[in-house]
Amino acid sequence: MNINSYNKTYTVDTVDVIDLQNFVGSSVYLIVFDKKVYDIYKGTAFKDLDVSRAVFLEADENCKTIDTAVEICKIMADIPFNKNSILISIGGGIIQDITGFAANIYNRGIRWIFIPTTLLAQCDSCIGGKTSLNLMNYKNILGTFYAPDRIMIDLNFVTTLSEDDYLSGLGEVAKFNIMAAHDGIELLERHIDRLLHRDIECLRAFLKRSLEFKKKFIEEDEFDKGVRNLLNFAHTFGHAFESVSHYAIPHGQAVTLGLLMANMISFDRGLLDHNLKCRIEKLCVRLISVKLDYHWFEPSSIIGAMKRDKKRTSEQLTAVLFKSDLGLEIVHDLRPEEVERSLLELISYLKLSKLC
Ligand SMILES: NC(=O)c1ccc[n+]([C@@H]2O[C@H](COP(=O)([O-])OP(=O)(O)OC[C@H]3O[C@@H](n4cnc5c(N)ncnc54)[C@H](O)[C@@H]3O)[C@@H](O)[C@H]2O)c1
Ligand SMILES: [Zn+2]
Fold it and tell me: Does 130 share its domain with 206?
């Protein structure tokens, strides 16, 4: 698949074997590895890879900082990198964000290859070109747009993800499919068991669907000025859940909780029929594995976090909700009372489902 972006067209390939050595040829390169991924795969997928020029990072939000990006730049400067050199990142969204930022600022942009190893990075974040770093306690507040030149996806990596991280990726897959309305919801219902069992053939079809779905939005509105904002569906709530739980809830599972909120509020506004609301709820509860603490759903904390959301442009709360017949729209008139009512409903639902 090719993705058109403002300064290049980049490619996404699904592969069965990561043949990096062959791909980089005689170019000077530096690999930034998720340390955990290297440790798991050093005897198999990466056994023939020359790692004499590699950096190993713990995929931890605390290292997603400008200091880490600068450290990588220093190593590239010492090598030294030339115009044909390549930065390669192997890991999930954390490694992607750090290396994308470093690749963007070094020499005003160098060649960059990304091999995503989490389901979330494979099905969602690898395309779209966003790079984000944390600053002090502010998550993702620094950022640029800089896509890799090439993305190589080997779905077999997802077999070693923890259940929490795997379901985090499935949350984003569910989001795309619920956004795709009736067809997407039916597909999810039909294949949810296979997805939960990490059936690679089934995942392959959903990976393709997710990337094709996202591609339309990012090509039409690369810089988030219009239609791409709809991809933020479930995220205003999701970011608030992440923040209030101090990131104990992985991103994609917070998005699933956000889907439940958008679902409940849309129903309360008369925009969604009862049958669809229940079908979406039934899907979403299967995508949550973290033990939730009901304190994380305290209305004043969640509403406070939503008010701090960096996407908010007015005094009112903003969210993407369903409009009639499963279309989506951004609303800027969400009232705190509506959020509060849905949070109470969410807690009862989660308690009933033994998740809280
Ligand atoms: N740039 C973007 O467009 C974008 C979009 C969404 C999220 N993000 C960012 O991505 C981050 C979340 O990324 P993520 O969910 O991909 O995960 P991650 O990078 O946080 O990794 C999650 C965990 O999985 C481990 N891991 C990675 N691959 C593995 C594998 N194959 N087997 C076993 N363990 C593996 C990591 O070591 C880590 O412990 C957040 O910082 C978020 O802000 C960025
Ligand atoms: Zn997301």
Answer: no
pLDDT surpasses 70 at 130: yes
CA angle 317-249-160, nearest 5°? 135
CA torsion angle for 259, 260, 264, 265 (degrees, to 10)? -40
* Domain's final residue, options 115, 138, 159: 159
Peptide bond into 336 cis (omega under 30): no
Mutate to test the pocket of ligand 1, among 5, 34, 168, 309 (most ligand atoms within 8 A of CB): 34
Reply yes or no on whether the pLDDT at 309 is more than 80.
Answer: no
* Nearest ligand 1 atom to alpha carbon 119: 16
What distance in Å separates the CA atoms of residue 99 and residue 148, rounded to the nearest whole number?
Answer: 10
Distance (Å) from CA 120 to ligand 2 centroid: 8
Regarding whether 168 and 150 lie in a shared domain, the answer is no
Starting from the CA of residue 99, give the closest ligand. 1
Our count of domains for the chain comes to: 2
Q: Which residues pair with 89 in a beta bridge?
A: 32, 114
Q: Is residue 117 in contact with ligand 1, taking CB distance under 6 Å?
A: yes
| pLDDT score, position 25 | 81
SS3 of 188-232: the string is HHHHHHHHHCCCHHHHHHHHHHHHHHHHHHHHHCCCCCCHHHHHH
- Contact at 8 Å (CB) between 160 and 169? no
**How many residues are there in the chain?**
356
228 CB-near residues (< 8 Å, 6+ apart): 217, 218, 220, 221, 222
182 with 220, same domain? yes
pLDDT tens-digit readout, 245-282: 999 999 999 999 999 999 999 999 999 999 999 999 99
Q: Give residue 92 CA to ligand 1 midpoint distance, Å.
A: 4
